[in-house]
Amino acid sequence: MSASRTNTGRSLKVDTHPADCGATSRESLRRIATATQFSSIEPYLPLQKDSTSGDLRWVESVENALKDVGRGPDTSLICSSQALWDCIIEMRASMGHRKDFTAQYAESLKLGLTQFLDALEGAEKFYSFTLPGMAKLAVQLPELLKAHAEEANRVAGGRTTLTLRILSYQQPGMVLLQQSLIAALLACGFFCLYPGALRERKKDDIHPINFDFLFIGVPYARNQVQKLKCLIHYFEKVCSSMPQGTVSFERKILPRRRPSPIMPLDTFPDEEYWKSSKRPLCSMKVVEYGAIEGAGPDYLQVDFANMYLGGGALNQGCVQEEIRFMINPELIAGMLFMSPMADNEAIEITGAQQFSQYKGYASNFIYAGDFVDSTPTDSLGRRKTCITAIDALCGPGEAQFEMGMMVRELNKAFCGFLPHSAICGAVEFWKSDNCPEASQHGPSTSGEESSQGDSRTVSTPSCSMHQVQRGVATGNWGSGAFGGNLQLKSLLQWMAASEAGSSKVLYYSFGDERAKRLQACLYGYFPMTITSR
């Protein structure tokens, strides 16, 4: 075959083998599909598209400002909170963000910045080293995004898509990010460069990862200062020595079934599935003191999540999820592209590095210095730390003891604890277990089911992308600020972990007196009864 193309008035012939032509076409289609998927995140990034090349780039004035800050205070003259605030406001104005939240509450942002930075130990190092390093990271965002797309395609090998994109409601998939790209994304958040309220946000309800709320909350909550200390420490470390690994963010969907083409989707597994389960309960141990993040790579670590990943991490929240996002700041990146979780969804994050130690909880939370994360890495460069984000019912009251509510919680935990390969092979998983009729409804990874009699099969993804832990490390999920019954929630988690094939549950009670009955029950002191009081 030959193809011709005109170039400056001349005809250019290119000899191409038919097989090569087919491969080239497939590669072109893959690149087009990747670009289309990446375009979903573009409105949420602080960049603009070049009208000629189509590449994302900085607004010129913002790029120049960041480069000046990157050269240090002798060039940028930023050696005070006032100067930094002026720079942030000017950059946002240059990007056209004159009427958004940050601009409207500029004075509150200034007050918070002043109170935090003027009292910061090592402020000189911050202005001379950390802040310029953060600006250099932010400037590199366009190049890092381009490199990310190429690397994500290489790792995926055409089997799936790992590129940065919006992962919406009922849309399973994985995003694999380099730690350097995450650092650049978070640096942009510190400078509050992400667009504010966009009309498109109504569709996905995804919020920018600007740090403005963190600074604004400084005068009102002392733990805000401690949260910011964790984040500044993170930037100090990555600016000193950038880690070279990756972090994956996966939206997991528990398949549903459709009883007939005209009927709505059912919850699956349903009440009958759970009632008829023959799986024995796995072993369970109550750990009175200690932390879930200390369980190690052999355990899937539970994030007591908000339906919006990260909850109040970038606001005034400071309980289990928010604290985890401060000591493992790379988790924050997921807030940029993960829409709220539905009842049959969970989010699993593998590879996030811990940078800080802490003490206390909620209003008593304190940054407690550096943490050296020695967790081994896998073939993709991810630390073998797997965190599953599952959101419990909020304020369920007496309704949490109703069957429908308990099934909801069972399925939420089950989705979070179930290994990836089991979800992708859901037909086989359920066919061989308690519910033979499940195969008639053909669960798939899409979360949306076809009509009765669908016999589609789903391929299991590459093992290199998925880690399987032997146990689950959890605790008082949904039993604190969310108002759940601790005894009920602990048993539901135990059931879900057992059904998902876990060998052991480590239950961290954080010294909660309500967990003592659970501990006594496990050790056979007396039978456990659940009361709503």
TrEMBL record:
Domain PARG catalytic Macro intervals: 272-516
Keyword hit for Hydrolase: yes
The entry's keywords: Hydrolase
Active site, UniProt feature: D303, E321, E322
Extent of Polar residues compositional bias: 1-10, 441-464
Region (Disordered): 1-22, 437-464
Domain (PARG helical): residue spans on this chain: 123-251
GO molecular function: poly(ADP-ribose) glycohydrolase activity
Documented EC number(s): 3.2.1.143
Family, per entry: Belongs to the poly(ADP-ribose) glycohydrolase family.
Protein name (Swiss-Prot/TrEMBL): poly(ADP-ribose) glycohydrolase
